[in-house]
Every structure is written in C-alpha cells, then in structure tokens.
UniProtKB/TrEMBL annotation:
Similarity field: Belongs to the ABC transporter superfamily.
Location of the ABC transporter domain: 3-235
Organism: Skermanella aerolata
Keyword Repressor: no
InterPro entries xrefs: AAA+_ATPase, ABC_transporter-like_ATP-bd, P-loop_NTPase
GO MF, one annotated term: ATP binding
PANTHER family: ABC TRANSPORTER ATP-BINDING PROTEIN, HEMIN IMPORT ATP-BINDING PROTEIN HMUV
Protein name: Sugar ABC transporter substrate-binding protein
Superkingdom, taxonomy of origin: Bacteria
Gene3D superfamilies: P-loop containing nucleotide triphosphate hydrolases
Keywords of this entry: ATP-binding, Nucleotide-binding, Transport
Length: 253
C-alpha cells in the first residue's frame, strides 16, 4: 500500500519545521529519509503516522486522506517505531510484543491463533524469541529497540515507519534489521543517519534540509559528493561498490 505526503507544512512555536514536503513510498518500497539533525525527519514521520495534523497539506494512505480514516483503522495498518519509545518497565518482552495485536482486536474477540502466530513470527524476526520472558527493565538499549520492532511487526502493518531504528544496535543487528525491513512485503519509510546503510538497503531516498526536501530519487542519483558537502557538510568520495552495486561513501579526514 502506498503512503504519500502532499505539500505538508507543520509549524511549532512560530518556527516552520516542515515546509511544503511532498513524498511518496510506493507499495512494497523501502524509502530512506535522510537529513542532518533537526532537519525534520521525526516530525515528518509523526505526521505520516497521523499522530499530529499538518497545518496544511495532507497525508494519503492509498487513495484516502488519513483524516478520514479512524484511529483504529490507521493503527491496524500503520506501525511506527519511534526513536525514544519506551513502555511499562514491569512488562515482559512477550507482553510488549502482544500489544502490537491490540488494534486488531475488538471488545468481544479473544486471543486468536492468528494473534499468537503474528507474535511468534515477530519475536523470531526480531531475534527476541530467547528473551520472551525477560522483563523490559532488564534489557539492553539494543534489545529494547528490537522488542519495539517486534511489536511493530506483530501489528502486521501494511506501512511501517521507523525513526532511526538502528540507533542502539550493534553492527550485526543493524545489518540484520535493514535486511529484514527490505525483505518485508510492506511499504516502509525509515529515517537513517548512516548514509552507507541507506544506500545499501533503500530503494529510494528523500533528503531533508531545514524542513524542505532537497533531493529525492535512487541512492545513486541522490548521494553525490556535492550533496554530501552542501547538505551534510562533509567531504567525501562516492564510488559504486563492487560488492553490492550501490554507492559507497568514503568520508575524507
Ligand atoms: N515539539 C516541539 N517543540 C519545539 N520544537 C520542535 C518540536 N518538535 C520538533 N521541533 C523542532 O523541529 C526541528 C526538527 O526536529 P526533528 O526532531 O523533526 O528533526 P530530526 O531531523 O528528526 O532530527 P534528529 O536527526 O536530530 O533526530 C528541530 O529544530 C526541533 O527543535
């Protein structure tokens, strides 16, 4: 299912955080959202998730404006892994992941085999099956991150929004997570700081600077030496990798 931002503008405290931002993630696509600190990535993801309304513009899920879709219907199809997500410290891993099934249940429905299956699959994909009975407060930062990803997967979303999900992960789990997301048959939008990882795994990229889209397209077209200098203020050389045929950035000292 596609997710589209049309001319989104969002302001807070007299500051325009997002300025007429448009983007679209096509069905099944993994769209990377890049930009320096404070460029508006988190704000944009929150608008896309329907958590706050734009001042102007609109968010479309498929052909429907999110404002005309009920909160429960949005929660059934859009999963959002926030950057500093937390949960009740007294819950076990399995209980946190089960929360992902909440939007799919009605007042009268019990816990179904489909719910069970979704939770087991999610734990497995996030590599957290072995920690299912551990308490949230006993987990490391990276494990907590993976539980949140498992919870999002348990939601069996059509659209998956991830805000710097590799933040606390070791390199094995960073690559594992990006591989996992790129292999899912969901539409995903993922904010990333690691430009090489974005180049390796994302189908397309959108770059924000001060709340505006300054570049979008295939990684090879977007990640140019000029863009790295102009937007990220770094000197770098970009080569096509002989290993994965995507751009590879060498930062210069
Ligand atoms: N609730 C808020 N109140 C005040 N300012 C805000 C609020 N939310 C966002 N901003 C401002 O909007 C700008 C964009 O913030 P946002 O968190 O969206 O950027 P980001 O690209 O996700 O940054 P980072 O890479 O550091 O996570 C920042 O200058 C931030 O201070």
């Amino acid at each position: 299912m596609s997710i589209r931002a049309e001319q989104l503008t969002w302001k807070i405290g007299g500051k325009t955080v997002l300025d007429t931002v448009s983007l679209e993630a096509a069905p099944g696509e993994m769209l990377g959202l890049l930009g320096p600190n404070g460029s508006g990535k988190t704000s944009l993801l929150r608008l896309l998730a329907g958590l706050k309304p734009p001042h102007s513009g609109r968010v479309m899920l498929e052909r429907e404006d999110v404002r005309s879709i009920s909160r429960q219907s949005i929660a059934r199809r859009v999963a959002f892994v926030e950057q500093h997500a937390t949960t009740n410290a007294n819950l076990k891993v399995i209980d946190v992941v089960k929360l992902g099934r909440f939007p799919h249940r009605s007042m009268f429905s019990g816990w179904s085999p489909a719910d069970e299956q979704a939770v087991e699959d999610a734990l497995e994909k996030a590599g957290m099956t072995g920690k299912r009975d551990d308490y949230w407060h006993s987990l490391s930062g990276g494990e907590k991150q993976r539980v949140h990803i498992a919870r999002a997967l348990a939601q069996t979303p059509k659209e998956l929004l991830l805000d710097e999900p590799t933040n606390h992960l070791d390199i094995q789990h960073q690559i594992g997570l990006l591989k996992l997301v790129s292999g899912l048959s969901v539409t995903s939008i993922i904010a990333l700081h690691d430009l090489n990882h974005a180049a390796m795994f994302c189908d397309r990229l959108v770059v924000l600077r001060q709340g505006r889209v300054v570049a979008s397209g295939h990684p090879g077209d977007v990640l140019t030496e000029d863009l790295l200098k102009d937007v990220f203020s770094v000197e770098a050389r970009v080569e096509l990798s002989a290993h994965h045929a995507r751009p590879h950035i060498h930062y210069l000292r």
